[in-house]
Structure formats: C-alpha cells, structure tokens
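User: Can you write out an input/output pair for a complex, sequences first and structure second?

Assistant: Here is one pair. Inputs:
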Amino acid sequence: MTHRVQIAGLLGDPTTIDAWLDAAMPHLGSDVTDRTRLHRECAIVLESITRAVASEGSVPGSGPSWQEVEQEVGRLTLARGGRGSASSSTARLMRALRQVGIGLDPDARLEFAHIVDELVIWAAQAKVERLAETIERQRSELEELQAPVIRVWDGIVAMPIVGTLDSVRAEAIVEALLNGITANDAEVAIMDITAVNTVDTLVADRLVRAATAARLMGADCVISGVGPHVAHTLVQLGVQIGDVRTTARLSGALAWAFSRVGLRVVPKEGGK
Amino acid sequence: MKNAVPIQKLGDVFLVTVQMDLHDQLALALQEQIAEAVAGTDCRGVLLDVSSLAIIDTFVGRLLADTARMVRLLGARLVVVGIRPEVALTLVDLGVSLADVTTARTAERGLEKLGIDLP
C-alpha cells in the first residue's frame, strides 16, 4: 500500500511532467519541434496513469482504467507517428519516465519501473497493430482487384490479369477463371495478360495449366496480350506453351471467341 | 459388374451417365460396355457424363483417354461431358491432359460437338 501511495504522490507532483520531458528530450533528438504540444500530450497520459493507480492499484492489470492508459499511449504513438516520429521514439519517451521514479524507495521504484515497462510495450504494440490493420486492408483491396471474371458475351468470359503473379495469386486466379466458366456457362475463356509485369516460366506454367483445365471442362481458352517482349522471353526461356492459343491483342482473342460461338463482327451498313 | 453403369441410346448417340465414383474395376467394366455398345451399332458418338464425379484419378483419367481412342477406332467419337473445375485442375496436376479427348460443358454442347443438331 505504501508503494501505491508513494507512486500516486509522484504522479500527482506538478513538477513530474517537466522532469519526465527533461529526461526524454536527449533521446528524442530532432523529433520534437513543439515541446508545448508534447507537454500537453504527456500530461494526458500521466493523468490516465494517476486515475488507474488510484482506482485499480499500481500494478497494471486488465481493468478498465489501465485499458484507458493503454489507449492513451496508443493514441500518443499514432499521433506522433502521423507527425513522422518512429514508434521507437515514443517507446523511448515512455522509457524516460523511469528516470522520474529514481527518488522512490527501492520497492516502489521497482513497481514504478514495471508500470513504465508496460507503457513501452503499449507504445510499440499500438504501432504494430496499426501496421497489421493497414496490411490486412491493402491485402483485401488487392484481392478484389485481382481477378474479375467478365461475361463479355453469351458463352464468352474474359479475365484481365494485372500485376505480378506469385503462386498464391496464380492459384486464386485459375480457380476464379474455372468457376467463372461454370457460372457463366461459357464456351470460350479469354485470359488477358497485357498488364502482367513479368512472364517467367512459373507464370507461363500456371497459364498453360489454367488453359488445359478449361479445355478439360469443355471450354476453349485463349491467352491474349502476349506482346513482342513476352513472346521473346517465352522463347528464350524455352517455355512449352503446348496447344494453347495465344494472340497479341485482345481484339484478336475476341474475334476468335466470337467465331467459336458462331458470331461475327461486321461493319455497320452505310458506315458510322 | 456387368451393366454397372446405364447406357442409353438416343438416336445416333449413346448417353452414359456415371452416377457413382468410378473405382478401377467399375471403370474397366464401363470401358468394355461402351466398346460393345458402339461396336454393335453404327452410332455417331458417345456422351460420357462425369459431372457427378468429385474425383478422377490417373487410372480413370488414362482409361478415359483409352476409351476415346477405342471408340474412334470403332468409327464414332467420345465426348466427355461436365468435368468439374476442381477435377480438371487435379487431372492437369496429375499430368493427365486428355489431349485427344473431346470435352464439353453440358450434354447439349456435347451433341453440338458431335455435329448433331437438336430439333
């Protein structure tokens, strides 16, 4: 109990915050341009710790007051991160608070150090969690982008493939194409690789695999958008494209697809 | 094992619908049945509907290719109908590409590929 009283006294001392900032400044370097703002932000964190110690004791637990401290530290980390500070900088700022407790009794000092440790962990964790959220969001955005199966005409589906094909993505794309053939009752499937960055043996192998599987299902597959550069690479790599049909431009693939389903594109009578 | 899979004659075409998983013995029996049926008539083709199969292994895959060649020798054509996406991918991974076998998505398209117009 005496530890708690000592720590509460330290936290309640109006000079504590300046002692904290003084201890922290040498470690923050050029990150801090506005000490008044940092003072305000740290005061909020300090107040939340004071409240937590008063209501739940000086050992950080899972109670609502300590959770509030965690949230405040997280908020500070993200706010400083938004201003260009590394998360390690905020972690150092938290660590500097340990210096303030140097005058406490040994036992109280140990307990205070424990609180500071938690603050450091929370500062790092906030950044990591934010990063994980960002990665997850971008990943799902990427997934939406990656493989739309378009019903071009009755019996014809097309799939524009964009970006880089790694094996996980290629797997998803192949599955989406085959399911698209079933769902749209397609006789012809067009894979357009105009926007694929690099075509290497792996990518070529995946595409041929997709085309062969499509043929087994009874649909014809054509790969369009094979430019001179890609053609050159495929020949250089010695890729066996098998009997898969390829065209340089999408229009060629479309014309072929139309003829497969018994259609023909003709100029309108009397011009435009 | 005789007549394990029903074979129906529809005009110039035999329709074979596989409704249970083809284990090796059954597949061999089916191959024999198809060959006998085709040899006994002058039909144009055989539609082999495998749309209810969730698995086609290398043995059955090769057997399909062999059956297609046999049917061609007998003067008709075999069309394998309704291979599912996942089955198709598995076959490709197993190295069974059925390059000589005509495939179709539905029985109707299979008839078209045999050159038979529906009324």
